[in-house]
Amino acid sequence: MEPAPTAPPKPDPKPEKVTQLQCAELDNEFKSIFTSSLMSALKYFPTVAGRLRAELELMVNSLYFGLTIWADKVEPGNLLQNITYCTTT
């Protein structure tokens, strides 16, 4: 008689804090890369780019929030670190 197959151990539902911080760091890097690309696109308009830098960063952060968290999607940093969070329904 064969032994009963054992189920694989369940993964820990709580990701480590270090991994969460690395995901946040990756997300900040993505936002800074996008912001620097936007600023380099506006390099021919230095007065506009200089005056509106804070507003452009706010726009990038809002876009990032709207396309990830608000739309109930995984953030790119979490996706790269393979972290998913449970949602309650």
Largest sheet: none
Estimated helix fraction: 55-70%
Number of domains: 1
Shape: elongated
Radius of gyration: 20 Å
Strand segment count: 0
**End-to-end Cα distance:** 43 Å
Category by helix and strand content: mainly alpha
Which terms would index this structure?
89 residues, mainly alpha, 57% helix, elongated
Structural summary, described in words:
The protein is an all-alpha fold. The protein has one domain (17-80). The protein is 57% helix and 0% strand. It is built from 4 helices and no strands. It has helices spanning 17-41, 46-51, 53-67, 76-80. Helix 1 crosses helix 3. It is elongated, with a radius of gyration of 20 Å.
Chain-wise SSE layout:
Layout: H1 17-41, H2 46-51, H3 53-67, H4 76-80
Helix pairs in contact: 1-3
In short:
This protein is mainly alpha-helical and 89 residues long. 57% of the residues lie in helices and 0% in strands. The relative contact order is 0.15.
